[in-house]
Every structure is written in C-alpha cells, then in structure tokens.
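This part of the workshop introduces the protein records we will be handling. A learned vocabulary of local backbone shapes supplies the integers on the structure line. Getting from the letters to the tokens is the skill we practise here. As an example, a complete record with its sequence and its structure tokens follows.
=====
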Amino acid sequence: MRNTTGYEREISVGKRDEAGWFVFPPIYTQCFLPALPLIRAAPDAALPRLIYHSLIFHGITTELSAEDDHFLKDVFHLVLELKLNERSVDKTDLLSRESSPGVWDANEPLILPEIIAHFTLSVFAELGGEERQLLASQKLYGTDLCDRLGEPVAILLDGHENYPNMVLKAKVGTTVDIFRRALGAEESNNPTEGSGVPNMTPNSSDQIGRFEGRRNLEGLLQLLSQISQNNGGRSPSYGSNSFGNCEDMNKRISQEEEAVRWTPDSHPDKPSRLNTLGNSLLVRFKRLGNLDDIEGAISRHQEAANLTPDGHPNKPSWLNNLGNSLLTRFERLGNLDDIEGAIARHQEVANLTPDGHPNKPSRLNNLGISLHTRFKCLGNLDDIDSAIARHQEAVNLTPDGHPDKPSMLSNLGNSLRIRFERLGNLDDIDSAVARHQEAANFTPDGHPDKPSWLNNLGNSLLTRFEHLGNLDDIDGAIVQHQAAVNLTPEGHLDKPSMLNNLGNSHRIRFERLGNLDDIDGAIARHQEAVKFTPDGHPDKPNWLNNLGNSLQTRFQRLGNLDDIDGAITRHQAAVNLTPDGHPDKPSRLNNLGTSLHTRFKCLGNLDDIDSGVARHQEAVNLIPDGHPGKPSWLNNLGTSLLTRFQRFSHPYDAEASIVQFSVASLSSVGPPSVRLIAARNWIYAASLINHASLLAACESAISIIPLVVWLGLSITDRHQHLAQIGDIVRKVAAIAISLDQCNKALEWLEQGRSIVWTQILQLRTPVDELRAVQPDLADRLLHVSSLLYQGNQDINLQKDHRRSPEEEARQYRALARERDEIVEKIRSLHRFRDFLMPPKLHRLIEGAKEGPVVVINVSEKRCDALALVYGVDEVIHIPLPDLTSERITQLQVEFNALLKSSGVRLRAVRDEEVEAGGDEGCKRILAELWDHFVKPVLDSLAFTHDPDTLPRIWWCVTGQLAFLPIHAAGVYNTGDFSEQIQDYAISSYAPTISALLEQADAPAQKPFRLLSAVEPSSGPSYIPNTEKELEYIRRRLQNRDHVVLHKADATRERVMNAMRDCNWLHLACHGTQIPKNPTKSALLLHGGKLTLEEIIRLNLPHAEFAFLSACQTMTGDAELSDEAVHIAGGMSLAGYRSVVATMWSIEDALAPKVADEFYAHLLKDGERPDCRKAAEALHFSVKKLREEEKDLKMLSWLPFVHLGI
C-alpha cells in the first residue's frame, strides 16, 4: 500500500571543493539579474569576474527582459570572440564588438577560458544531445568549439548528460580527446537515457539545424533565447521531476511534433527527434495520466529504434527509452506483454553495452528496475534475485563520489526490501536500510534527490517495523518521511507520493500506540496526496486506497460512520480505477472487502458482508501462493466468513473460515505477527464449532510465538511484543486441559511463558557433548551466544561509539541469525535433533526431584493447577472450579490498593497505625487464596499438617496470580482455628520448570565468598538499619571469607566487579521497580543505579545465592505477568541459583532481624553454606520473628520470598 519513489539522481551544490573544482548550484534564481547593471557600469578590471559570476547562472533565472536578453547575447558573443581569437580588447571594443588590441588586468586571477567553460556548461544544460553535438561542431572563426572548450563539454557529452543532476567539475586546459571520442565512434550519453530512472524528463526542443561559419553565432544566440523563453526563464530540471505548467509542456510537445513531421524518415536526425518527442510524451503522461500520451511515447520510441540501424551508437539509447515507456505503461495497465517487452529491451541494451562503457551501470540499473517490477506482479523469485544482482553490479561499477551512486544504492535498497517482504530474511531488510542510508548520506542537503532517498529510507524502516516491531524504526520512518515532505516543494511531481508515505507511517504508528494525532495526521496527509494528484494519474488509485485505510482505522477507534462510509467510497474508487491484471488489484480488493466487513459489523447490512466476502475472495484468488501478503488476505477472508457465520449460522462459512485461517497460520511467508493473528482466529473459529483442528491451531500459535519474540530483538522490544500477545498461551493451555491433554498443556505453558528468560538461559547452554562430536561447531555456537548474551540489551554490543545504534542493532540481528543457522545445523546431526528444543514432559519431571512443582494456569474459561511429582510419569491435573480469572484480577486490585494505602512502597520507617489497618484486608485475601486455590492443591498432593517435617513445593504462577502472596496463603484467625501453607510446606517460586533444571545442573561449587554491599543513603530516604544489618552479617560469618562494600565504596562498578569474584551476595539498599520500562528497574547504589538490564548481562557461572534486602525486588510488571521481569529474576538469569527477594517494600527495622535469623539458621552447623537450604532458612527466620514479635504486622513479613532451588 506504499508507493516507493526512487530511481532518481544527483544534483550539484554551489561551492568549490578542496581540489579547487567549482561545484554548480541547482537553483540560484536571483543571481544573474542583479548583476546586469554592475556589468554595464563595471571598470575594465572588474568586468571578467562580473561576467563570470553572472553568466554561470544563465538559464536558471526567473525572467529576462528584452533588454537583458539582448545584453546577454552581446556578452556571450564577446566572450566567445575573445577566447577564440586569443586576443584582448578594451572597453570600447567590448561595447562596439570591434576587434582591437587591449589588455585585461594582469592582477585579475580569473582567466577567460574558465569563464567560457562555465558559461558553455550552462548553455549545454539547456540543450538535448543532438543540439549539444551541433553546438560543439560549430566552426567560429575557423576553429572547432570543442577544441577550445575542452573537458567541461566532454563531461556533459560523456556520461553526465543531466547538468543539474551532477557535480560539474570544470578545470581548464585538460583533455580534448574525451570530447572528440564522445562525438566520434563511441556513443554520447544521450540526455534522455536514464542514469537511474526509467522515465526521464524531455530535452529542449530539437530545433537546431546545421549551421556553418560565423553567421551561426547570431542564430545560436537566438536559439538560446528562445529556449529560455520556452522554459519561462528557467532551465529544465532533469532531476527534479518538476516540469513547469501544462501550457509549457504542451507547447514544447507541439514544437517537437512539428519538427518530427517536417523531418523525412531518411534524415539522420529523425530518430533523435522521435526519441525526444517520445520522452516528452512520457513525461506528460506521468504528469496527467492521459493514455494517448503513453501510447504515443511507445510508438515514437519504437519508430526511433526501427529507423536506427544495428550497430549505430544511438541504438541502445533508443531501445532503453522504449523499455522505459513500456515499463511505465505496464505500471498503469498491468499488461504482461509490456513488462516482458520492457525487460527484453533493457536486456538487449545491457548486452549491447560493452564493459567499461560509461552507460553500463545505468543500463544494468534499468534492467534491474524492470525485473523488480515483474517480480512484484508475478512473484517469481528468479526475477527479484536477478534484479538485485543487476542493481549490485550497477553499484559496483559506479565509483564512490559519482553523481549516480546514490541512485544506484537506492534502487538496490528498494529491491532488497521487496525480497525481504517475500522471504523474510532480515539480512535483506537490514541491507536495504543500510543502502538507503548510504544514498541519503552521499547526497548533500539541498539536493533535489535528497527527498527521494529519505523517502525510500523511511519505507524500509517502516517495513522493518512491521516485521520486528521496534519502535525506533517506526519513529525513524516518520522522521524520514516528514523530512522528505518538507524538502519537496509544492507542485513537485513527487509531493503526493511523499505525503502518502508519511500518512502510511503515521497510520501504522497509530495502530501500535493509539495516539489520535497520528491517525488524524495520516488522514490529512492522504487527503493532500489525493488532492494534489489529477484524475487519470496512475498513482491516484494508490492514494485513494491508502486514504480509505486510514479512514477505516479511525472509524474502528472512534466509531464515526462518516469515516467508514468515506473509507468504502475511497476503496471502491481505487478498485474501479485499477485495471484487471494490475499487480495492485488484489491489495485494493482486499482493503475494500475489509471496509465492507467493518461497516457490516456496525450496521448489519447483509449486502455489506456478502460484498466483503466476495472482494476478499477475489483478492485471494488473484494473489499467487508464496506472496508475502497472502497470509494477511487469507486471514481477512476468514474473518469475513466467520463474521457471516456468527450472524447467519451457515456451516459452510465456519468451515471455510477455518481453512483460510489455517493456511495463513501455517504459511512459510509473511510477518510472524500476521500469522499469529491468523492462528488466534483459527483457534477461535475451531472452538465455536468444536472442530477437529482445534489442537493443531493451538500448536500453530505456540510455534509462532518465538518467531514474534525473536532473539534478534532487544529485550525491550521482545517485552513489548509479549505484552501485545497477551494471554494466548494460557488460552491454548486451557483448551488442551479441556480436551484431556494435560501433558501437552504443561509443555505449552513451559514453552510459551518466560520466553525471554528461556532465550537468555539457552545462550549459556553447555555444549560438552556437542564438542566431543563437532568441536568447531560447538566453539562457534559458544562464541556467537556469548556475544549475544553481552549484547541482549539496548546498548552497544562492544561499546564501540563509532558505530550508530542502527549499526549496533544490525550487528546484533546478524549474530542472532547466525546463531539460528548454527542451531539448525546442529539439529541436522543424528544425536542432536532436539538440541535446544522445548523440553518434553519426561525432562520436565526431573525438575521436581526436590519437591512437587505446581503450574497454575489462569484463563478466561477456567483455572487449573498442573502438578509434577518426581516418579509420576503424568501431569497431575487439579481443577480449581472456585477460582476465576475475574476474581483473581479483583483480588490483585484490592491487594494493590491495600499496599498503597499502607504506604509500603519504600524501605523506610513505617507508620504502625496505618500498617495495622492493612492486616484485616490481608487476612481476607489470603484466606480466599487458601480456600479456592492452595488448599485444594495441597490436598490433591497429599500434603499433611506437620510443621516439624516440611517438604518443599515450587509455585509457577501465571497471570495476575503472580502478584499475590501465594507463599503465605492461609486462615489467620485470632481464635482457636488457624491454618496456613507454612504449616504444610516450604514455598519457593520459579519462573519456569526449565529454570529449576538449569539451576540444578549448575557447575561444581567454588569456595564460599560473600559480598555485602550496603548503601543506606542513595535513595529517597536514609535507611539507617542497613548499618545494623551489616554488623549482624559480620557477626554470623565470623572468619568466613567476606568482602564488604560500604557507603561510598558501594558504587555500581565496584559492586559489579565484586559480584564476579564472590559467589554469594547480600545487598542492603533501596530498590525500585519501573512498571513502564521494567528492564530499567534498579538497585540504588552509591552514585548510580545497577539496573535489571545490566544484571541480566552479567554471566556469573559460579554464582550461588543472593539476598536482596531492598524494596520491590520481585514485584514484576502487570503487563508481563508471565515473564519474570524483576530484579530477582535478573539475578537468577545472571547465574544465582537461589535468591531471597521482596514482593514490595520492607520495613527498615525488620530487615536486619530477618537477615540475622536467616544466616544464623544457614550457618548453624558450621559447615560451608548450601544455597539449596536458603528457602528453609528464610522460612524459619520469618517464623521465628512472627513467634517472638506477636504484634508483628502482616505487611512487614509477607514480602520476603524465595526464588530458585
């Protein structure tokens, strides 16, 4: 739905470079006129410089009076005469045109040859190829003009025909041979032949005849004047696609048609004039969309080619332009014969052009464009591969600094982007972004092609965002598209395209973030694009289509019927204006179908849903298998069919919708996010009619999730995707449970929860067994995984500040792709087919060796506990009929309100009266958790009330249940009856069963060494009891190895370094959880923060235990309830097998007591501390404090929890 404006060229800037070459400006329209009075009144010494500064800008002035035009002729005549006769004149001679000796000021540094060179270049910029050759061949005073003008003219004739599209570097006194060669055996680079664009701007009228002798000077000057007048005082802008008004165009074409009519077929200039006329008709077609013009252009180009014999140096140029015209007609009408003809002509031209010829790159480029276009229509991968190969050749053959280099790079980027949309290879889209960035970087500000390159860069960033979802990409796309719009003047032919693409970016960002300014801006930009495009223009349907998309999107948010009616009107107009066979027809039919479907859901008109289904079916029928858009359109067809089924209950519609959803979900192409949506719809449709494919639909969804949450994305982006994915994993698990597939349900929950955690753990997977078989492969996997592990955040991989964030992200994605390839290669080995595959049940059961593991699944339909008991080969299913998703959410809301009202968000001195008010609320919530959840689980697992012999139990909770204190559930009555989980078991939490397996398989222990980092002052309040906490720890450790970082010593850097040397850790400080950006949650140390993202990057293979005596270290993120996005989880990822943490803030006075009792219990036998006994130590330390302090408030001891083994 986006139009890509590209294939354009370089333009000049107005200054001298370091080598002293003068670089021409593209538009300085006021430079010449103000200089005329000065020239008339100037003294002799100043005259050369004034002529120089004035005449180099000839042809780009806004207007010329008759007097000024006459004076211009005089000056031009005299300058040429002075040079060609190599003599000087005085001022009288200048004014009278008489030849008499005179002297120019010897102190004047500017020499006349340079004046003539620059002036001649500006003249040549006005002329077509034939006209240029005629001018160059004139004999003035018996001397060939080419002999006198040298390289500047040769530059124009030999590969740089478009004056405003290049950096003209004019030095005097260099070779004439280049120029002679350009006029001789080798073909001149015809200005109408594309250096990067298949559609060129026409030249000035081909009216110059063959003149001889001095008399031709006056005729030449008259011609120049006429050209200036025909162009409204401006020279044609060959790179800007801005052609003045229609009257000028029509007048020019009429003159060219007249010249063709009066030129006999046998005349040698006939092909050139036909070609020029064909180009002008082509440009007018692109401007106005009249089919007669494109037909005429093809006819004239074909005739020019037919009249030119094989072997003639101009034959390739005429064939090239014929190919460009055929390509343009195909883009409008979609006739395959046209694109086949265009490719044939461009291939013929490329074959006829020898290696080393200056036009070789541009002709390869045009061939690449035609192949690219055919691929978009037919989807043949050979075409896009060949297109990329041709574009790459063109880039390779074009030296750095060449004015066509940005065009070649941009076209290569366009083709890479298109191939990415088909195959999804991230190398392609990253390369596309890089090529477009290079094109933009190589183009100076003020260059008329700069907007095109920025626009194409924006398109590639937008495409990458649609696949990966990185918000930096969509923000970058909008920045580039906005810049392209701002740099494109009103009335410019490309302005509507720039506006359209900017609108698309705003709409896409609205769909992600929901900011109404974005969708309003999108509609405004699309409306401008439509307004500025005349009826009949080939791009008009595209702009209408995209305007319809934005109106429909706003309707879905605001419900204004005018928007959906307007969307349908625009989409219908786009379809009507798009001929059958056009490559965009399926997309426009699809969008019309979606709008009709949307209105039906609002108004219920049967015609709308029937028409919507029909349009979607047409779109699907027209698009080939393997097309990247097909999954989306299949999903839309399925959605329309399902909606009709829900309204009218036709069984066929339900069955047909399931077919569409399944094909879309199982497709090997298309964005994973689209395929996941199709899988969700498949699940929903199959659930409605109890279809046999329901489990297959669930399996499909689970398999796609890792592709959406790909390792190559930053952790922040992966978390954003997970937040959008929502509760699909819990839904499919509930379906499996309802179908008595509890083993499968547990495997899916394990695979679909804590995904980021699992990905990071896998980067540390031991490869000893693999190394015994394939040592090189094992080493490569470890090397790449290590780089990924260090770079899995939004920071520089190697802290190389010479690289941009874009380059760093690209490098990270390349490493992730390399790792994917290595893993696939490993899985091809016989013994490693399941390498890093999600664990099966038999492996998961090993995680329950030390005690049962209970996974709680909370979904809208049902709540269940799935328990693993070591030695039992099946999952134990425990239904929880009295527990509902809605009630758990309500409990979590009530509990948060209780915490807020009690003021327990920071480690500090508490208000006991306020805190006491929270006890009754806690008791009620904990009792409900006990009755409806924990007690049924313990009963099913045959746990008994025996406080003296307590087994271990691990809780893996999902959804909002993760924010409730399961470890303390119970009945806390002050009377005779009291029953709590602490009397039945010692509770721990685990993000996944795989995490427990990883922690159990940790390497052998190193000698005990504890790091205590204590910082009481960094934070919102001073916490004095951290000093006491440190003294308690010192007393309990006695002579054991103990490293202390206290106050100013407890800096972020020193703590991180010490964590690498010590395998036990105790942190007493402030902590904070950042809900909107959880990876920025942190421990507050002296002078800085130790953030969660930094903790995760620490790879501490010998770490054992961490005590986090800080606030909110296991709070988590409500939007990522199935991910362990908290500081305690980060410690586990860093390597700590056992962690004591807090669910909310802790009381400063109580923290030292808990720590004291904890280490007393852990160190009581005098042996080396065992991190496996940390949960037990915490359990009994809290129990002892509760027994000793009868008035201890519940919110004081409840937050202490254990995570890990």
